[in-house]
Amino acid sequence: MSENIEQPQELSEQEMLEELSEQHRIRIEKLNDMKAGGYDPYTVTKYDVTHSAKQIREDFDSLEGKDVAIAGRMTSKRVMGKASFIDIRDGSGRIQAYVRIDDVGKEVFDAFKKWDLGDIVGVKGFVFKTMKGEISVHAKEIQLLSKSLLPLPEKWHGLRDKEERYRKRYLDLIANPEIKDTFVMRSRIIREIRNFLDAKGFIEVDTPVLHTLETGAAARPFKTHHNALDIDMYLRIETELYLKRLIVGGFDKVYEVGRIFRNEGMDSTHNPEFTSIEMYQAYTDYFGMMDLAEELYRTVALNICGADTVTYQGKEIAIGKPWTRLTMKAAVKQYTDEDYDAWADDSAAREAAKRKNVEVPATATKGEVLTALFEEFVEDKLIQPTIIYDYPVEGSPLAKRKPSDPAFTERFEYFVNGCEFGNAFSELNDPMDQRERFTKQAAEKRAQGANAEVDEDFLTALEYGLPPTGGLGLGLDRFIMLLTDSASIRDVLLFPTMRPIE
């Protein structure tokens, strides 16, 4: 009789736990009986697989009647007297196998009947098509390669709790194999970005993850201690300063696919560790990086999705069309009717914030008010890809000032579906200006309790001369969310950060 003919009944959480414990006990007993009989599946060290399930399905015409060897997890089993059909799922998908006592022998078949769903098995046999037209493997040999001591989640209609899916991604992949497509696409997207940048002459590099200084703007780092050196160290919150050191050293185009760590809040677009791609190009500016960003997104979308318009959460996002470009001043004026240039001074700016019911510090400057109005009234309106450029200098410690208006910097961010996807500058290469901004930034962070310091080595590098340089950092996880239509960053991270179960 089939193991999966009966429809499972709805069970309470306690009943599920009790049944899980009972299944665990029964399977361990089966394993012990197996070992007592002289076979331990955990001693199997290899199995020579010749074909995947996908290869057999796609190449059936050339493989029909030929011997193959497959291996994978047994996900269904239909025993009918002296024969059985089983489903095997490998990394490429599902394939059916036909197991008959006359072919594999009575001893093996009797043992096979005691195997459980979830067990890892290997099958050698020939390819054929059943009377119902299903491509299958007719087993000549079958072997248990690894014993599953816990039942598959399908026993209770799959994994219903999304938190549990994130915590136990291995079970999620077994119960919901279609989600594997997201992570396959993630890998392809990273590869396409690398191909794009490599073709442009960029060199991929690696820079330190552990830093000896607490640097950065608003982001808080994770702190650790190096025992041998007896010093505190910090997990990086960016790759920028080391990459720009390389531009100083003569690498004109560099990039890094880097894991970043920030000790801050979590939501649908934020995880404490995430992946960014930062790229720096000598002898260009932020307008050059705007063009690079648009071309990169368009190229990757076309190569991955086959189109440069994608659907994200029910909205059509036109990646391929020319992106809207607005200065921050123009964007705020468009959405609030507040005109930065009409504010006579900081006090007038704070009055504008008050009119719009936006709280700002009592010492807020015009630039800080402009940024606050943008975040409150503009950002979530930017559904189609939009570049916002010329940011106030107060919030841009690493961007070059605009020569025509030193209160602003040559910086841009781009937004999709109301969310920031990337950040770019004409890089600040004036070491004296940089020292002044670093010093102010470090003082502000120390006032908040941080152990912030000025990166003197980076300033020394700037004093040797950083050529005019454009830099761009893009949030890889958010880009993947867009191309895979994933609502949460946790859906595109194999192992997102989770609170431990107490």
Please tell me about this protein's structure:
The chain is α+β, with helices and mostly antiparallel strands. The protein folds into 2 domains: 13-158, Nucleic acid-binding proteins (OB fold (Dihydrolipoamide Acetyltransferase, E2P), Beta Barrel); 179-323 and 384-491, 2-Layer Sandwich (BirA Bifunctional Protein, domain 2), CATH 3.30.930.10. It has 16 helices and 19 strands. The chain has helices at 13-36, 53-58, 60-63, 101-104, 106-112, 162-167, 169-175, 180-199, 240-249, 286-305, 328-336, 346-355, 366-377, 431-447, 456-464, 476-484; strands at 67-80, 83-90, 93-100, 120-129, 135-146, 203-204, 210-211, 223-226, 231-235, 253-261, 273-282, 309-312, 315-318, 324-327, 386-392, 401-402, 405-416, 419-426, 469-475. The strands form 4 sheets. Strands 6, 10, 11, 14, 15, 16, 17, 18 and 19 form a 9-stranded mixed beta sheet that branches. Strands 1-2-3-5-4 form a 5-stranded mixed barrel. A 3-stranded antiparallel beta sheet has the order 7-9-8, with no helix packed on it. The radius of gyration is 29 Å and the shape is elongated.
Give a quick precis of the structure.
This protein is α+β, with helices and mostly antiparallel strands. It folds into two domains: 13-158, Nucleic acid-binding proteins (OB fold (Dihydrolipoamide Acetyltransferase, E2P)); 179-323 and 384-491, Bira Bifunctional Protein, Domain 2 (BirA Bifunctional Protein, domain 2). It has helices at residues 13-36, 53-58, 60-63, 101-104, 106-112, 162-167, 169-175, 180-199, 240-249, 286-305, 328-336, 346-355, 366-377, 431-447, 456-464, 476-484; strands at residues 67-80, 83-90, 93-100, 120-129, 135-146, 203-204, 210-211, 223-226, 231-235, 253-261, 273-282, 309-312, 315-318, 324-327, 386-392, 401-402, 405-416, 419-426, 469-475.
